[in-house]
Amino acid sequence: MDGMTFRMPRPPRPAFRPPAVRPPAFTGRLHDARTATAVGRWLGAAFAVCLLTGLVSHYLQQPPAWLADRLPARPAWGYAFTQGLHVATGLAAIVLLLVKLWAVYPRLFVWPPVRSVRHALERLSVAVLVASAVFEVLTGLLNIVEWYPWPFSFVPVHFAVAWVATGSILLHIAVKAPEIRDHWSRRSAGTEALPVQDAVDRRSLLLATGGAVGVVTLTTVGQSFTPLKTFDLLAPRHPDHGPQGLPVNRTAAAAGVTARRLAGWRLEVAGPRPYVLTLDALGSMPRAGARLPIACVEGWSVGADWGGVRLRDLIERAGGRPGRDAVRVTSLEVSGAYRVMEMGAEYADDPLTLLALTLNGQPLTLDHGFPARIIAPGRPGVLQTKWVQRLEVL
Amino acid sequence: MRTVSVLRYGLGALGLALMGLGAWLVTDQPDPLGVLVWLAGALVLHDGILAPLVLAVGLLLVGRRRRGPLRGALLVAGSVVLVALPLLVRPGAPPNPSALPLPYGRNLAIVLAAVTVVTGLLIAVRRRRECRQGRVPADG
User: Is residue A285 classed exposed, middle or buried when 0-12, 13-18 and 19+ CB atoms within 10 A define those classes?
Assistant: First the structure.
């Protein structure tokens, strides 16, 4: 704008003309279909992983009736893996999404914004894609730090918008299929038509994107993968921080469980032959041990040594049929969405599923569910019910 | 229609159907309008805040002959800052002592310092290599 003056002679009032203001044109390099395709492939893969692992988590937590008794208890590390992957991939997707969108900035900020009906529809579908994709990674990112500034419930809305994002990605792939095919590899026809000197620059950008994903992953994944805990600098959880060497999601105070409420605690077991046990009587039953992770929906997981009584022994004593009967577990906590938990027959029968009394060799602390808690292989942490008061053979 | 077209239209139709499913699930929520506001907010967050910010930072790179390493450093640093931001600005005390237990401000500074050092080394190594290649006579 140098040298321009605003004191111009006033022209005769013309017929209405749109103001001559327009966004600056993009002159930078690499805002091209090859860059978008190369990053888009990784982004698509990341969203696919997030969707699949998200569905695993969703149906483990809320299985339909026909599935509840068929959910496999093994591998014991299954949920720690899928949910750790869900969160790690979601964090990586933040980087990939922003680079992918950067590659198409000239189209996002195109002028005029709409050229035709077809163009308007295409832009609308892309707006839905951007909104839902950013929404998913943003709500996920805030959820793992347990920050809920929105007026809705996270789980069902994150689930619902995941379908919007998935659908709009598939639609986008369908619309862009010819361009994607033309720029799929370095030797594709469309790629070869791009300026040759951009190839080196593009490789540098893609390497940097990989580097950014690598650094984000390395500095956060230690919360799910303990061998990398040294590099866990920016994750919401750390394997070494928590009572008895294990993080806690819901404290006794938050759940309204106090020493007074626990006074005179008894375990009630309902079934064909119901019975009641004191803590001493429970402790004198045959003991078993299991090394199992607590794996939280927020993505962190830490393995621990648990000691207690096998759930199947307790079921059998009540006249239940291990392997065929599901179990309902009720906690002493005052309120909470997971106060009552149901466990399918496969889990209830697994020899690793315990009513745990000890954690890493010590009696459970109050925050870890004293006097007794459930620990089962391959289940989300919210279903590892603490402060267990009642078992019911179903 | 050719098989490719059938696949393409089928994929598009599946996409539309899933978008419909998601929209239906959203309307099933107690406050669908709140979800809509947040979806629009996500769009504004990207197009209105993040993208202009990226473009402004991108001015640093304009006119540089070799922008690769600096751009890479900015990309890595920006990503790390973005991922760490909720840890730093989340209002209120952590929900319990084992949640958000780390000194995140200090840790972010460590990561950014490491990014700076690695970038500096990369640039130095590249310059040296270029100098050496420059000195080699043309006939070997």
Answer: middle
Q: Are A57 and A82 in contact (CB under 8 A)?
A: yes
DSSP 3-state percent helix, strand, coil across chain A (nearest 5):
50, 15, 40
| Of A228, A247, A251, the residue nearest A239 (C-alpha) | A247
Out of A130, A171, A215, name the one closest to residue B80 (CB). Answer: A215
Say what the ipTM of the complex is.
Answer: 0.93
Mapping DSSP to helix (H, G, I), strand (E, B) and coil, where does residue A309 land?
strand
Label the pairing between strands A288-295 and A362-363: unpaired
With contacts defined as CB-CB under 8 Å, which chain A residues touch B113?
A: none
CA dihedral B18, B24, B27, B29 (to 10 degrees): -80
Q: At what angle do helices B68-89 and A198-218 cross, to 10 degrees?
A: 30
Residues sharing a CB contact under 8 Å with residue B109, sequence separation 6 or more, in sequence order = none
Q: Are A212 and B76 within 8 A, CB to CB?
A: yes
Contact check, Cβ <8 Å, A131/B43: yes
Model's pTM, two decimal places? 0.92
Let me know how long chain B is. 140
Q: What is the pLDDT of residues A226-285, one digit of tens each?
A: 999 999 999 999 999 999 999 999 999 999 999 888 998 999 999 999 999 999 999 999
Q: Which CATH architecture has domain A244-393?
A: Alpha-Beta Complex (3.90)
Interface contact A98-B110, CB threshold 8 A: no
The length of chain A, given as a count of residues: 394
A267-270 β-sheet, strand order: A275-277, A267-270, A388-393, A327-331, A340-343
Q: Do A99 and B42 touch (CB under 8 A)?
A: no
Mutate to test the interface with A, among B8, B33, B36, B39 (most CBs of A within 10 A): B39
